[in-house]
Amino acid sequence: MDFWLIASIVLAVLSALLLVLWLRALRVAVNQSTAEQLRIDLELSLAEQQGRLGIIRELQDVAVLAVSRLVTGAEAARYAAERDLSSAVRAATALAEDGRGALADMRRVLTIVREGESIATAQPGLQSATDLFRVMRDAGLVVGFTESGLRFPLKPGAELAIFRILQSSLANSLKHGGSGTEVKIAFTWTQDGLKLQVEDDGIRAAARRSSADAGEFAARTSYTIDDDLKALSESISGAGITQMRERAELFGGVFNAGTVPGVGFSVSAIFPSLRFHNGVHGVNLGR
């Protein structure tokens, strides 16, 4: 009797310990995913702001030259006024024109600065995809992108969801496939929907890096029918996968992720009625 009591207590303690360890591992995984997403966001924001700083510098140089011309023209007008009033009037007219030009240049600088301030606090969307691809290429991925169909405007929430799915997919490709992994991204637009497909060759990339010859590479990338069946039936889990699935489902999407034996990993999100979806329903209220 005492034995079973002790055994029950030990099992309860072990179960509690395993639960604590599992929760801790889950927290670490979520924190890593959040940190990676934050890093990419910061790099994208930095790239956008650097571009704006370049434009600001160019416009600032133009404005400085315009102000210099104003000073020179004002001095010329002062000397002309002492000798010929009509020349002074013409010089003053030219000064007014140059002043308007300089004012316009400075207003353009202020406009770009304000745009930069507002965009720095805005959420990324599909317009940020090009910068995302550049950041991931710099990190070591070989990114290819194709788009077919006619793109249509999306609600800001839908754009953000698609961008986050794309961002998480690329981050996973880099994390699991490593440098040199080839990633193919495809946007397929239909009349009312969108299909996002992200496929990488992470398994082959890892084999390329670690194989000494073609024979070893072939052995590392070989697979069987059982591997295919397992890939078709397995349920991929993890904090990043769960977040991508939830983002897709929020806008009526169907999310799939799985291993491609001997090749890498594939992610797809299909949104049948994205044109009209606002995160609550996908009905065309205009009909």
Summarize the helices and strands and which ones pair or pack:
Elements: H1 2-83, H2 85-120, H3 129-139, E1 142-148, H4 156-177, E2 182-189, E3 194-200, H5 202-210, H6 214-220, H7 225-233, H8 239-250, E4 254-260, E5 264-271
Parallel strand pairs: 1-2
Antiparallel strand pairs: 2-3, 3-5, 4-5
What does this entry show, briefly?
By secondary structure, the protein is α+β, with helices and mostly antiparallel strands. The chain has 8 helices and 5 strands. The protein folds into 2 domains: about 1-120, no CATH class; about 125-275, 2-Layer Sandwich (Heat Shock Protein 90).
How confident overall, as mean pLDDT?
Answer: 77
Question: Are there runs of 5+ residues with pLDDT below 50, and where?
Answer: none
Order of helices and strands: HHHEHEEHHHHEE
CATH homology superfamily of the largest domain: Histidine kinase-like ATPase, C-terminal domain
CATH architecture of the largest domain: 2-Layer Sandwich
- Give the CA-CA distance, first to last residue: 73 Å
> What is the number of domains?
2
What is the CATH C-level name of the largest domain?
Alpha Beta
Spatial strand sequence of the major β-sheet: 1-2-3-5-4
Radius of gyration: 30 Å
Number of helices: 8
Question: Largest sheet at a glance?
Answer: 5 strands, mixed
Oligomer: single chain
Number of strands: 5
Here the CATH topology of the largest domain equals Heat Shock Protein 90
Shape: elongated
InterPro entries: HATPase_C_sf (IPR036890), HATPase_dom (IPR003594), Sensor_HK_TwoCompSys (IPR050482)
EC number: 2.7.13.3
Domain Histidine kinase/HSP90-like ATPase: 159-272
Catalytic activity: ATP + protein L-histidine = ADP + protein N-phospho-L-histidine
